[in-house]
Amino acid sequence: MELSATLLALCGFALLAGFVDAVVGGGGLIQIPALLVLLPQMEPVTLLGSNKFASVWGTAMASWQYTRRLPIEWASTLPTILTALLFGFLGARTAALIPRDWFRPLVLALLLAVLAYTLARKNLGSLHAPRLGRGASFWLALATGAVIGFYDGFFGPGTGSFLIFAFVGLFGFSFLAASASAKLVNLATNLAALSFFISHGQVRYEIAAPMALCNLAGGYLGSHLALKRGSGFVRALFLLVVSLLIARYAWDILRSA
């Protein structure tokens, strides 16, 4: 496949990834495999840097759309952002010390539990009803950011879905409000990671820049549709993405067995 056709295909995947990621996270499920398959000659770290450059624009667009149209629960969101940044860095530093394959069975079990719990509780996340006081919300947000931030730095895939589930299940957010807060946390952690990739020259801008425009467009479309359709739409797409994550991890475990 020549470069122009390859870039056109990557832009299509970036548009789809931005759309899905704006609603429930999981855009990396689409964009990273596309880069790996279509650009097999490129160094993996450069692919990751180019992916991060492209995806951060869609995340920024979705964050802007949500903050413009929804009241954000900053008392829970800001502490989550702060500890996610710190523990994301610690997770990345730890990644070289522990085999990442150890995480796959644990992540698969957690995703199955998330899927089962969400399916069993039909009204989960249908209403926005924060259940915690300011103090309890602050400390739980710190813990949430620490755990999920460390996971994001160490391993990564599914972080957006885990954040959404945490905001819904622990804090009592609606799926729509949870998606908004998760996007803001993702934006902060993505910018931190991107600063590393840019400073180390691991971004191919001739590929990443066109993908970024398409990812941004997908982020706009996804957040716009989520705001228009509400929590029921976000919940349905959340279940789909979690199911795809489960299928991916099950396949990875079977393939490496």
UniProtKB/TrEMBL annotation:
Protein name: Probable membrane transporter protein
Transmembrane segments: 70-90, 102-120, 132-151, 163-186, 233-251
UniProtKB keywords: Cell membrane, Membrane, Transmembrane, Transmembrane helix, Transport
Main location: membrane
Compartment annotation: Cell membrane
Signal peptide residues on this chain, from the entry's feature table: none
Membrane topology category: Multi-pass membrane protein
Similarity-based family: Belongs to the 4-toluene sulfonate uptake permease (TSUP) (TC 2.A.102) family.
